[in-house]
Amino acid sequence: xKILICESNPLLVQLMGKELMSEQNEVHLAWVxxxxxxxxxxxxxxxxITEVLLPQINGFEFIHNARLQxxxxxxxxxxxxxxxxxxxxxxxxxxxxxxxxxxxxxQLNNHIQRAILRKKNSLISNAIDYVTKI
Amino acid sequence: xxxxxKAIAVxxxxxxxxxxxxxxVKSWLMQKNWVLEGNxxxxxxxxxxxxLMATIEANQKQSTLLLWLFPVLFTALLxxxxxxxxxxxxxxxxxxxxIRFLHxxxxxxxxxxxxxxxxxxxxxxxxxxxxxQLKKQMLIEEIISLRKQITGSQTENLQQLFYQLGLDTFVxxxxxxxxxxxxxxxxxxxxxxxxxxxxxxxxxxxxxxxPHLRNVAQMACVNLDTGQAFAFLNxxxxxxxxxxxILLHKTMVRSSLPLPDFYSFLQSENASVIVFALNMIRLFSxxxxxxxxxxxxTHHDPVxxxxxxxxxxxxxIYEAIPVVKQNFLGExxxxxxxxxxxxxxxxxxxTFEFYRNIWLDTPRRLQAEILKHVSPxxxxxxxxxxxxxxxxxxxx
Lengths: 134, 396
Hints:
The structure holds 2 protein chains of 2 kinds.
Chain A: E1 2-6, H1 10-21, E2 26-30, H2 33-43, E3 47-50, H3 59-69, E4 74-79, H4 84-93, E5 97-100, H5 108-133
Parallel strand pairs in A: 1-2, 1-3, 3-4, 4-5
Chain B: H1 2-30, H2 40-58, H3 64-121, H4 124-131, H5 136-147, H6 153-164, H7 167-174, H8 180-192, H9 199-202, H10 211-224, H11 232-235, H12 242-255, H13 271-283, H14 290-296, H15 302-314, H16 321-327, H17 333-342, H18 348-358, H19 364-373, H20 376-395
C-alpha cells in the first residue's frame, strides 16, 4: 500500500514511517507544509495519515482538498485536538479514522487495518441498501 | 531648580562643543594641504567640502548663518552616512550569522533525530555512542518532543535512552540555571522522564513569581511526588489560572495519579484554589461533605458560586436547592443561569411553582434565560401559565 504521512514533528513522522515500512508498505514522509500538498498530488497515496495542526498550511483545508482530489483514499487523522466539535468537523471534511495523541505508534498498523475493514463494511452495507431500494 | 541648572549647563556645553567643532572642521576645510593627504577617500571628502564651501561663499547674499554652520552640517552629514553604513553592515552580519546558526542547528537536529530513530529501530549501541558526541540540550528537546506525543513500549525505550545518556544528572544540574526559560525546559524534561532526584530542587519554584515557571513546577511536583502532590495548593498565594488548572487535570489523568481529597481545599482563602478543587470534585465525581459545597453556593466570589452550582447539579446535591431558591433573585445573571441549571434537580412541579412565584419580579432577560435552560416540559408549563396571566391582565 502507498502511504503518505504528514506531520509537523519530523521525529514522529520518521517513527511512524519506520512502523509502517515494516509491513511492506511504500511510505512517503512530509513535514513541511508545501511539500505535503505536492507529495499528495505526485504520490497519489492509498492512505493519507495527517495531523490537523500543520506548518504553513491549514490542516482542515488540506484534508478537505485531499478528499476532493482522491475520493477513494483512506484519510486517517492523528491529532491532539480533543474538542468534540473539531473531531466532528474532521469527519465531515472527509476523514475516515481519528486517532488522538498521545498514541502508541506500534498500534498504527492495527488502526489502519481496522479503518480499512470498517470502510469496506460501510461500502458493502451502502451497496446492499442501494440494491434493496431498487 | 536643579533640573533647570542642569539643562542650562547641558545647553551651554553643547553650544561650546558645536562652536569648537565647527572651527576645527572649518580650519580642516580651509587648509589646502593637511595631515591625511594622499588617502583617496579623505582627499575626495576634503575636495568636496572645499568645493561646497566655495560655492556658498560665492553666494554670500544667501545666508551668513549657513556659511558659519556649514562645517558642522557637512561633518554631521558624513557621520550620518558612516552610521547608516555601519548599522546596515551590522544588521547584515547578524542576519548572516543567525542564518548560519540556524542552518547548523538544523543539521545537528537532523543528526539527533536520525540517531534516535537508529537507537529505536536499528543498532542501538552505535547510535548511543554517536549520541554521546551530540549536544545534550538538543537531545533532551527531541526526546521530550517525541515522548509527549506517544505512549506504549517506545516510551520505555526513550526513557531508557534518556538515562543511558546520563541526561538525568544533566537535567538536575541545569534546573539550577539562572535563566527562567532554561529552568522551564529542564523541569519539564524531569517531569516527563520521571527524574525523582530533581523533586527537592523543583519544589520552591511552585511559588515562583513567573507564571510559566510556577505552572511547570507545579505540574512536575504533582507528577514526581508520590505523597502530598497537591500540598502546594495550601500555601499558594498567587492565582491559579484556568489554563494551569486544565494542565494540572491533564497531568493527573495522564499519569493516573491517586486523587487527593479535594474537599480539604474548599476552606482555602485563595478563590482560584477553591474553583480548582470544585472543578476536580465535579470532574472526578468525588464524594464528600455536602455542607461544604452548600456553603460555597453563597460564597462572596461569584466565580466560586457558579462553580459550586455546577457541582450541585452534577453531583445531585438536592440539599442545596432551598439555598439556591432563597438567593435566586439577588444574584448576578451568570450565577442565576447556573442556579436555573441546578434547579433542574428539583421536582418539576416545585420548580414550576418557584418560577411562577418569582415570574413577575423577574426581568425580561432572566425570564428568557429561564425558558432557555429549563426542560421542554417545564418550558411548556411556564409558557401556558404566561398566556393565562396575559389573558387575565387584558380582561382586567
